[in-house]
Amino acid sequence: MSVKEFDKLFGLSTSIEEEKNKFINRIENTVFSYFVKHHEFEEYHRLFKHVCYELGLDAEDLIQKSSFIRVSVPNFKTLTNKDFIQTLRTLVAIYKGVYESQDIQQFISKVINDTIEKSTFNLGIKWTDGVFFPTGDKLLDKELIDTAVSLLDQFPNEKIDLKNALDNYNSKSLYGVVENCYIAVEGISRHLLGNKKTLDNNKEDLLRLLQFSRYWDKIFVNYLSYAHEFRRHAGEKRHELKSEEVEGFLYLTCLIIRATLRSYNDKK
Fold first, then answer.
1. Backbone angles phi, psi at 125, to 5 degrees
2. Closest alpha carbon to 123 in 245, 253, 1, 4
3. What angle do CA 129, 133, 134 make, to 5 degrees?
4. What is the mean pLDDT of residues 185-204?
5. Do residues 99 and 53 lie in contact, with contact meaning Cβ atoms separated by under 8 Å?
6. CA 59-62-67 angle, 5° bins
7. Does the pLDDT value for residue 139 go beyond 60?
8. Which of 245, 260, 97, 118 is nearest to 184 (CA)?
9. Which site among 37, 129, 195, 252 is 20 to 30 Å from 48 CA-CA?
10. Is the separation of the CB atoms in 16 and 121 below 8 Å?
């Protein structure tokens, strides 16, 4: 019997914050500790600097401070300060930094998925392909987000853009989602049409290529108008976004990506 099953059997409950702290502790005791114990100094030093770069932190300053307590390179937990979102970001950066070792990446994925499974609360995250995704409706996640990400395997830059949008959403940031979604769809349109035009200038040619119904064309055009206006006024005071609005735009982007690429592939 697992501890999770035991707690459920005896009606024991915790708060979402407690479960997030447990998630952090489990990651620190496994993934973070693994790199301290099983890596040579130079290898760990390189990885630590890579993670700091990804997170926008001053690696040399952190390493210098750690030398005062006779530690050559700090533990990754010094980068997170027990913060849940920062722990997620650090894990993503570590996974990216060990891209040359599939065995280590598989170890990280196994630990993360097991840690998520052990939580008695829905932490609102899932781990797929080296990135944390926000979890909403399971059917929508599977049919829209997972499929859209998978379809972008042949479009690596656009796949990164979509993941950036998902990462911003998962970080509870209302900004950075619409922008990256737009860039992803814009990149796809450029690939399909073989030019460098903006998405707004490509929309008519793209719709002619895909041959959707006029009703879907209206949805697509309104989607582009929303994103285009939002980005055009990036330096000005924009309307306040609601989380539901951002979530809806994210799901709609995944739907548009899926419909666009499937339609295009069907016509090849």
1. -135, 155
2. 4
3. 165
4. 92
5. no
6. 125
7. no
8. 260
9. 129
10. yes
